[in-house]
Amino acid sequence: METLVALCKRRGFIFPSSEIYGGINGFFDFGPLGAELKKNIRDCWWDDMVRRRDDIVGIESTIIMHPKVWEASGHVAGFTDPLVDCKSSKQRYRADQLFFAQVVVDGKVEGYVSALESERTAEELQEAAESFKRKKAIQGRLQPVEPRDMTEARPDEIALIPSPATGEPGSLTPPRSFNMMFQTNVGAMSDASSVAYLRPETAQGMFADFRAVVDTGRVKLPFGIAQIGKSFRNEITPRNFLFRVREFEQMEMEYFIHEDADWEKCHREWIDWCKGWLLSIGLPENLLSEYNHPREKLAFYSRGTTDIMFRYPFGVQELWGIAARGNYDLKQHEKHSGVPQAIFDEATKRKIVPHVIEPAVGVDRIFLAVLCAGYAEEDAPDDKGGVERRTVLRLSPRIAPVKVAVFPLLKNKPGLVARAQELYRRLKRRYAVFYDESGAIGRRYRRQDEIGTPWCVTIDFETIEKDGTFTLRERDSMKQRRIVEAELFALLEEKVF
Ligand code: GAP
């Protein structure tokens, strides 16, 4: 991850937000290449999810909505994480990410150890327990630790659990609920009547606008409403670079189905669609898996939730959640707004409040996944026939920030430069293209490999003096072949969209 973070900064993919003031935790800016890559992810999703389907329409709702939306959806009362404070260090932890265990020697509890959630939580607790026993010179057999998180701690245990910040017990508070919505005030008055929230999900925009879309959009069941937009969550512990941040972008779609429809089949179809889409933007299948939420942990209205998981360098984590939510949200809005949400179903000649399948994904998590999956360091031939290390980002042409780099072989030959610039200008009307005339060709290739450009073309003397062909060099195979301009445009048309 450190190498990737360094590359992102060096090559202008991502910067810490407001870095000149020391940054702000949980917020990131996207630099020139990052903004392109992110836009490509969004555009691919929108094209495939909305434009290329007849059953889904797109909307763009506001970030600040009527506060009653969030009362109806349950976010005001329940969008909380359990928070634990360390009174000594002033650090804050999510209680379900702070683990502890008893140190039990010969059946007697000698003390407690703690560790933050990671791939190695259990091992770290075991090592901490061994170290505890050694330091206190306790004789006897240490029992294997049994990790629990702070939401499971008994009141009498809390004072005995050491803070991960100080290593000492006595400073951790009991868990309390912390609402993750950012509050603001609308209008000149700053009192309770003007309180509003930055949306913590885009989904409620689709539910709040459901009636308007039905009345104006000529949609009939089953159909979907999709949107892409910013969401905000005051995460207690933003972490793992872009994985958990406080301002992020979601791509969500609510697929409305008849209450009698086979929701399990529809749910499965959407899981498969989402997986297929991830493969289409270049994520390898072996890094993806599925996690079915246990029934007893689902919200009461939910029928099933499956997450598509991705193997990030810091562990297997949720990338895309696909939830079968019944018709809870529409019913709640009907109740709180007084506006009926039932629609007339032609097929059954009945009025019904549709049920919904909701695929919800974060653009930032996909961004991080494609970088993690695409990053490689490997040996490659250098200009002098030797071997050198190259860094390469294997990004799919669909999302790569730059599609083609155009080089004249030599920058001091006006004929080569003119032809290269002519090609560059023609490509640029349709694609993100980069023109580079400085340095040896090998160096120019390396610069493009590092930012994931799938193809480089070099204009040489054969191009201007003979048949007009130029060299096309492929990023992944590093193979080169000669092609004409029409072939290049055909290749791009086939691979980029
Ligand atoms: N409407 C349902 C919903 O918002 P969620 O599981 O809370 O469900 C959906 O969020 C997706 O949004 C997640 O699968 C993840 O990709 C992304 N996401 C959620 N919280 C995030 C955060 N703090 N930072 C980055 N992405 C986040």
Characterization of the model:
- By secondary structure, the protein is of the alpha+beta class.
- Helix content is 31%, strand content 29%.
- It has 15 helices and 26 strands.
- A 7-stranded mixed β-sheet has the order 3-12-13-19-16-15-14.
- The two termini are 30 Å apart.
- Bound molecules: glycyl-adenosine-5'-phosphate (GAP).
- The site of glycyl-adenosine-5'-phosphate has 19 residues, from strand 13, strand 16, strand 19 and helix 11.
Summarize the structure.
The protein is built from 15 helices and 26 strands. The protein is α+β, with helices and mostly antiparallel strands. The model has no long low-confidence stretch (mean pLDDT 96).
Mean pLDDT: 96
The small molecules bound here are: glycyl-adenosine-5'-phosphate
User: Which residues sit in consecutive blocks of at least 5 with pLDDT less than 50?
Assistant: none
Percent range of helical residues:
25-40%
Strand content: 25-35%
- Report the C-alpha radius of gyration, rounded: 27 Å
Broad shape: globular
What's the number of helices? 15
Separation, N- and C-terminal Cα atoms: 30 Å
Strand order of the largest sheet: 3-12-13-19-16-15-14
Structural class: alpha+beta
> Biggest β-sheet, characterized?
7 strands, mixed
Quantity of strands, as a count: 26
